[in-house]
Amino acid sequence: MAKSSSPTASASGTKKRKSKSGALTHEEVKSLGHELLSSRTHLNHAPTLLALLSPSAPLKIALEALISLQSFFEPLLPSIPSSSAAAAEVASSDPELVFGAWLRQRFDEFVAALIELSVLPHSDDTIREVAFDAFMNFVKLGKDGRFHSAIYHKFLHAVVHATDSIDPLLELLGSKYSKYADVCYFTYTSLDKITNSLGSQTTGSGKDGLQNGDDSSEDRSISCIHNIYNILVHIPALDFKKETKFDMWSTVGISLKGEKNSFEGSSATHINKRLKVKFTKAWLAFLKLALPLDVYKEVLATIHQNVIPSMSNPAILCDFFTRSYDIGGVISVMALSGLFILMTQHNLEYPKFYDKLYALLTPAVFMAKHRSVFLQLLDACLKSSYVSAHLAASFAKRLSRLALSVPPAGALIIIALIHNLLRRHPSINFLVHWEVPQDDTNTSGEASHPKKVGADPFNNEVTDPTKSGAMRSSLWEIDTLRHHYTPAVSRFVASLENDLTVRAKTTEMKITDFSSGSYATVFRDEVRRRIKQVPLAFYRTTPTSLFQESDFPGWTFEQASVLGNENSTVETGGASPAKRSRV
Questions:
Q1: pTM score, whole prediction
Q2: Most CB within 10 Å of its CB: which of 59, 227, 309, 405?
Q3: Closest CA relative to residue 359, chosen from 431, 458, 460
Q4: How far apart (Å, rounded) are the C-alpha atoms in residues 158 and 137?
Q5: pLDDT tens-digit profile of 302-332?
Q6: From CA 412, how far away is CA 492, in angstroms rounded?
Q7: Partners of 555 in beta bridges
Q8: Looking at residue 175, what DSSP letter applies?
Q9: Residue 582 pLDDT
């Protein structure tokens, strides 16, 4: 089969066809495709069709070229040599080996064109979907029916390093292919490699980039981190607990080099284990990166629901959560959810947990975006009977002090939290009402320093709850809420007047009913409330002025006469209607 000269022979025919109009028409492209599929004598039509695969090309022409090339390469895919073998066959004298090397080069160009059409945001939605489906078909039809992980890795590498939006492509990937276990498996595998490579590049060149003032490398790194996170979000973790049979995109399924048996015949438990391992590695590699603040917050807001349940060993995240919890501010508030799960479900020990939780109680937390989850977790953390009396008293006192400065919705939450604290820990109920005798001295035994009436020994500035002095104080701040300007707060504070030590007669308050409160909810509830009596302004005599003379003692008001002719009225129009004199 001496046909190695056929590409050269067909080149002249293509040039003649293009010379008539200057550009190929749709019918001409269709004819080139038919000729390419009919005989090897027209192999040089392949480069011509490859040149038409561009986002700027007309849609019909690009689609026709793509479909023709896909039909050409699919039956030849098993015979296409690997890249290393093709490089060695270029200098061979065997025509078949030379043809195999040429075919490999054209196939790599076709795959690169498909990736470009899929990734670029200005590609037409139709050509993007067709190109991506064609690419995934080549992934499916790997050698011997195996998942073609090499070209899939190239695709993910291009997606991660894309500088423009990749949302349309990720929507296709998530909606069509994320349900297949092998697609998820090799996605996690490739992301693990790409992320580790990105982390090493950032660590190695980060200092040099900062010294040289090069912001472009930092911007590219941040863009890559955003893209990796978007891929992880659009490839959700499979429900490993409910899956009894996993669907595979490729024929063989999840199979690696050197493995004789594929996972197709393996049990769901074995596949489940392998998927969890890859899922965990991908997320760990991502969390080791220097995450931008917006990505950091999104991760903390969802990781306890979308990531921790699917990990092989969630305790590995202890360093990430403790480091986030130690940062302070809103980051600590958002890290509390994951840290609480690790402590309660995975036996994580964190000695300074309550100290950090105590320090987070500031007025800003009652106006934060994620205050609802934080306040619910705060109530859950203080539910344990192992919480000591001085710790419960410190939290109750800290919350009552905050009630003086938070919005009305925050005051309602604080009342509910203190209600639950007093009911769970009867030993601190003395804080509700504590009378100080005249001859009482300090609890420390210092008789020379008697307690002063009106002085609060509680120190709100310290961050250590054991040194706050709450056990020598009282909840006098709650009593001031009886006169709160918001009626809902003044009414609700009456719930603390009940004897909370009698647990049979009282019930805990659900923090979820108050944790999402705001000015809007307080106003809406007050407007909807039906009242029996409405306060009205009542006057025995009709008032003749806005203010009474008794409101301004020492002043007299003489009302100017408005009677008279029009001229006098016009002349005095610019003067004051009333004269004020000091008595």
A1: 0.76
A2: 227
A3: 460
A4: 18
A5: 998 889 988 888 999 999 999 999 888 889 9
A6: 7
A7: 582
A8: I
A9: 43
